[in-house]
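As a representative case, the lines below give one protein's residues and fold tokens.
***
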Amino acid sequence: MNWSHVRLILGREVRDQLRDRRTLFMIAVLPLLLYPLLGMSMFQIGQFVREQPTRVLLLGAEALPAEPKLVEDRSFAVALFAEPDQQRLVELHLADSEPGPTGKAWTLDDARRAVETGHFEAVVHVPSDFSRLLGDFQRQLKTGAETKAGGADTRQAEPQVPSPEILFNTAKEKSQLAFMRVSQLLERWREQIGRQNLIDSRLSPEVARPFAVSECDVAGQQQRESAVWSKVMPFLLLIWALTGAFYPAVDLCAGEKERGTLETLLSSPAQRIDIVGGKLLTVMLFSFSTAVLNILSMGLTGSIVMRQFPELGAPPPLAPLWLLVALVPVSALFGALCLALAALARSSKEGQYYLMPLVLVTLPLVVLPMAPGVELNLGNSLVPVTGIMLLLRTLLEGEYLRALQYVGPVACVTLACCLAAVRWAVDQFNSESVLFRESERFDMGLWFKHLLRDREDTPSASEAVVCGLLILLVRFFMSFALPQPGSFGDLIVLTLVTQLVVIGTPVMLMTIMLTRSPRATLLLRLPRWDVVPMAALLAVLMHPSAQLLSRFVQFLYPVNREVREALDGLMAGSAGHFWEMLLAMAIAPAVFEELAFRGFILSGFRRLGHQRQAIALSAFFFGISHALFQQSIVACLLGLVLGLVAVRSGSLLPCLTFHLIHNTLSLLAAQPGAFSWLGELVEAGEDGPTFGWPVIIVSGLLSALILVWFRRLPYPKTREEALEAARELADSKAEGGGRKAEDAAQAERDEQGDSDERRLTRAY
């Protein structure tokens, strides 16, 4: 990368962006106006909600007891309110003094319709015999207490007192507010009646509450304040960093396409990676500035607003430092993602459509740390974006020692994501078909004809994506359409149906309809004679490492107890049915999953021209196609190995062999006494045999050697991979030539400077 070119492009892009008044408004003006206006709006809305009175109809007021009073002076008794001023918030209407909708007395149906239409927010219906039955109940309590005091013990059936009913409408917010207020009043009234009943029974009211639970909050005032800000500030930081990166990225890519200035930039001496570097630094700068200004404006507004809420307090004093440190990798990650997405767009309008998918993918990762019970641990620190937010929350809460333990994992994952996003952006700028796509009108008929008429030997990358998404969608809907298995036999049938219908059918149909050569698409070729035995040996040697990986993943992300119990219950009847298990859980997945993920999907992604990217994408779809999250992680990592074997061997047969042996060994490990012939090298455990460290280390080293052997196998490249390799070779030669020219020019300048210095010395 030529940093002088990057610096020139950075200056050019920053000047262009600063000339745009909309950009300046979004970055500088909007944050200064947004939070004060938002604070004013919240105060006004809160005041409106607090002072909004609700209309309540009381049906059956004549059935109320005289004491304690529920209604006093045509309103609820003031003693029932927490504060006397709240009495005006409940506007009570008595059905006895108001005619009904038909001009006659109110009925329960009339009251129900009145709540549905919004004439009243709530209706309190008191049964007609409520006062009589309550009086009988109280007299029986009093009589029983007197009889018991006299020495007799005569037990009688206690009369059932009917319950008052509250009618409200959950579809209307105001009706829910009325229900909340009225239910609190009736609860306090019921407590008054209960205390009176205890007195009538010659018992102290303290009998119902013999003790009180005291509360002791060990958190200090600063810790309580930090707990609130530690969830709000990282969330706003990430959201504004994403928003601040997206719109400049769209203007720098799609906007330049519309203005016709992108061709001029591409024809300059700067290489594509220099262009991406300059544009990325520009996007990062605006993302950083947007987030900083929003945080400052929020802090200034919050310091003023929070004076009205002393319990919240001010943000932690070190909050700006931690936010600024975290903002650098966050802006780099979002900047690279937005730049790559913006390069796909043909116009600024189309580029803005890509914001919603990016937000939908990012938002769950941002919201997850705000869920109750989610804390910073090793498993969560390995989740992109979520780990950053949890680390920030831990730092803002002042737990520095705990945060220090997970700085390394969070930094490594974030750096890896940033590098992957930057690489994706560079690939987008290296693709002429992406940069110079023309706007076109979509015609369904022409598109379908083109799809069937202009078929190629292998599918395109977009068709591979559609195939992967189709498998996921069909699996999702079938999981709800089919009944859950209740026995081991049902599990076998469901597994076979899933493999055949969900995975096998879409792949075979798309292969026949969208490609000209199913043999090339599904890699139905015979490999070298030594490839299949090496794949089988690799599966056997990788089994201990795969088992260790599975246990480690379950340690990071423990399986839900209910899920584990359900699986154990289904597998309880598997004794004596090994061949059925082998067919459903080893042979069928090996055939259909390999046809799908190492056949159709991998062949489609190889059309992108990047072998590693194709293997990673096919492994990703292979992983998320599994039901359990823990199983998806292990499957994704094994999919990388299978993808390498498929590409280097050029055949699906070694992948099918590896998959079959791996699943068979996993089934054998679940059998009692499995691998006992290894003696002390294997220990029996609750979850199956556990291999000793000597076995794991030796088998891991041998597996690595076999992978290196596969890596060095000669393999046929696709047309796109050959073009990409030629382009990378030309770029490396051009970069080397440019460096040599710069070094020669610098040497010439140095030599000229030395000669000038010697000439001045001689003159002196």
Residues 523-721 form one domain. The chain has three domains: 3-39+223-435, 51-207, 523-721. The chain has a mean pLDDT of 80. The radius of gyration is 36 Å.
